[in-house]
Each structure stands twice: as structure tokens, then as C-alpha cells.
């Protein structure tokens, strides 16, 4: 049985005081982590504050990115070793916004995945296709390629323990969600790709999220699907009441 995981991705939103107020508002209302892993992915600037505010509670904290080296002359980058030292558990990598606006390649993302595991954290690895690829009927091939390249060299145990988020680019922030049937089908493609590369035992364990215009009103439809183990949520994770409602939708 795979434990559900709901992760908010705040993207580049909030100030430190707003991040702290959010954590204070939600931290005592997070469901037990025997039911669901509840995660907030924050800008690096607020991670230390969020770690302090959420200490001893069921709220887990993710970074939205990191570099693939632990230290050195990499101006402006965030060290995975420093994230691990803060107690951060998850790092989102390969988000379509980073691939598109910051030109991250599959190889860059793969190096980050290795660095995250080397520091004892868990990657939330994002994949997803454009509307053009979707309409051309090439989604499955696209997703297989992103996963194959992004996970190169990881061990079976590492892949089994990670989280893979399927986020169709055409459904991100557009209000146009892939319906639950499509989400389940493509999350199934993700799982089959993992099975082909790492075997069935690994693909039965890896957790797969759907992301793209998930809201409290539609979360239950996604969670009811066989291949969907959780959600990666942007806009609807920004307000405490909405984030808590997403978690309620899983219970
Ligand atoms: O990109 C996303 C999460 O990483 C999805 O964003 P929205 O939930 O705002 O569509």
C-alpha cells in the first residue's frame, strides 16, 4: 500500500512573514502522517523559518530546487548538503518551469537526483508534456524519455523511495486540469516505464503524483485512481484553508 503524498509547490510566492503565518495556521491541523505525507515546497529563503515553525509537527518541508554539487564556486545556487543540514526532506526537481525558463536538461536533473539522494533527501521528480505533444498523441513516448534520462544510474531502492510527479504543462495554472481518467492513464505510463527499467517490485512502491490545477473540489477524483498516489499543487496550496482542504480530501 502506497502512502498518499500531497505536496504544495508555492513557486515564487510569499514573503518570510507570510510563510511563517501559513505554517502557524496549518501546523496543528495536519493529518497524521500514517494517513498522508503533507509537504510544503517553499522558496529556499523561507526554508529555515519553515523548519523551525513546523518542528515536532506532521508538516514536512520541501525545497523547490537545488544544485548538483554540495559546495564551490556556483554563485546563486543552493547546496543540497545545506538543505539536508536544515532538515529539509524533499526537493522538487525537473519542474517544467525550471526546464523551460532556466533551461535545465534531463542530464542536469539527473545529477540533482543523485545529489539529493547522496544527502539523504528524497526527490520529487517532475515530468510532463506540452499541449502540442499531447495533441500529437506523443505523451507516452515523451514521458518515457524524460523518466529514462532523468533516473539514469539510480539504484532500485532509490527509485522505489522517490516521488514522481506527472504534470502536463497544459494543465499548470491554466484551470484546465487533465481529467482523472487521463491523469490515471499517464501516471500508469510512468509506473510502466519504471517497471520496464527497474522491475515490478520498484514500480509497485514508487509514489506517483498528478499535478495541474488540482483543487480541494477535484482532489478526491484523482486520489480514487489506481495509479495516482498524490498531488503536486500550485495555486491551491497557497492559502492555509485550501491546503488543509486538500489534505482532508485524501483521508
Ligand atoms: O505546477 C504545479 C505544481 O508544481 C501545478 O500548479 P497549479 O496547481 O497552480 O496548476
UniProtKB/TrEMBL annotation:
MF (Gene Ontology): triose-phosphate isomerase activity
* Tagged with keyword Isomerase: yes
Which top-level enzyme class is recorded in the Swiss-Prot or TrEMBL entry? isomerase
Localization of this protein: Cytoplasm
Q: In which pathway does it act?
A: Carbohydrate degradation; glycolysis; D-glyceraldehyde 3-phosphate from glycerone phosphate: step 1/1; Carbohydrate biosynthesis; gluconeogenesis
Q: Mind telling me which GO cellular component terms the entry cites?
A: cytosol
Binding site residues for substrate: 9-11, 173, 213, 234-235
Share an example GO biological-process annotation for this protein. glycerol catabolic process
Q: What Enzyme Commission number does this protein have?
A: 5.3.1.1
**Which catalysed reactions does the entry list for this protein?**
D-glyceraldehyde 3-phosphate = dihydroxyacetone phosphate
Q: Which PROSITE patterns has this protein been placed in? A: TIM_1, TIM_2
Q: Which UniProt keywords apply?
A: Cytoplasm, Gluconeogenesis, Glycolysis, Isomerase
Q: Which CDD domains match?
A: TIM
Answer yes or no on keyword Cytoplasm. Answer: yes
Q: Which residues form the active site?
A: 95 (electrophile), 167 (proton acceptor)
* Assembly and oligomerization: Homodimer.
Function statement = Involved in the gluconeogenesis. Catalyzes stereospecifically the conversion of dihydroxyacetone phosphate (DHAP) to D-glyceraldehyde-3-phosphate (G3P).
Entry similarity comment: Belongs to the triosephosphate isomerase family.
Protein name, entry field = Triosephosphate isomerase
Which organism does this record belong to? Isobaculum melis
Gene symbol? tpiA
Amino acid at each position: 500500500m502506497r502512502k498518499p503524498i500531497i505536496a504544495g509547490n508555492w513557486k515564487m510566492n510569499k514573503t518570510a512573514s507570510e510563510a511563517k503565518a501559513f505554517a502557524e495556521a496549518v501546523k496543528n491541523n495536519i493529518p497524521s502522517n500514517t494517513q498522508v505525507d503533507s509537504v510544503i515546497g517553499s522558496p529556499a529563503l523561507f526554508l529555515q523559518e519553515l523548519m523551525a515553525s513546523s518542528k515536532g509537527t506532521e508538516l514536512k518541508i520541501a525545497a523547490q530546487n537545488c544544485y548538483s554539487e554540495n559546495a564551490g564556486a556556483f554563485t546563486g545556487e543552493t547546496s543540497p548538503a545545506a538543505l539536508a543540514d536544515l532538515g529539509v526532506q524533499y526537493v522538487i526537481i525537473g519542474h517544467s518551469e525550471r526546464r523551460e525558463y532556466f533551461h535545465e536538461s534531463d542530464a542536469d536533473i539527473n545529477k540533482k537526483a543523485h545529489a539529493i539522494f547522496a544527502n539523504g533527501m528524497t526527490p520529487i521528480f517532475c515530468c510532463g508534456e506540452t499541449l502540442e505533444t499531447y495533441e500529437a498523441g506523443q505523451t507516452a513516448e515523451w514521458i518515457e524519455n524524460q523518466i529514462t534520462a532523468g533516473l539514469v544510474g539510480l539504484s532500485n531502492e532509490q527509485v522505489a523511495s522517490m516521488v514522481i510527479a506527472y504534470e502536463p504543462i497544459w494543465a499548470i495554472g491554466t484551470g484546465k486540469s487533465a481529467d482523472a481518467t487521463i491523469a490515471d492513464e499517464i501516471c500508469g505510463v510512468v509506473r510502466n516505464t519504471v517497471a520496464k527499467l527497474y522491475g515490478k517490485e520498484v514500480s509497485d512502491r514508487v509514489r506517483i503524483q498528478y499535478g495541474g490545477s488540482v483543487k480541494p473540489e477535484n482532489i478526491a477524483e484523482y486520489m480514487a485512481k489506481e495509479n495516482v498516489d498524490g498531488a503536486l499543487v500550485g495555486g491551491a496550496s497557497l492559502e492555509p484553508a485550501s491546503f488543509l482542504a486538500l489534505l482532508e480530501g485524501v483521508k
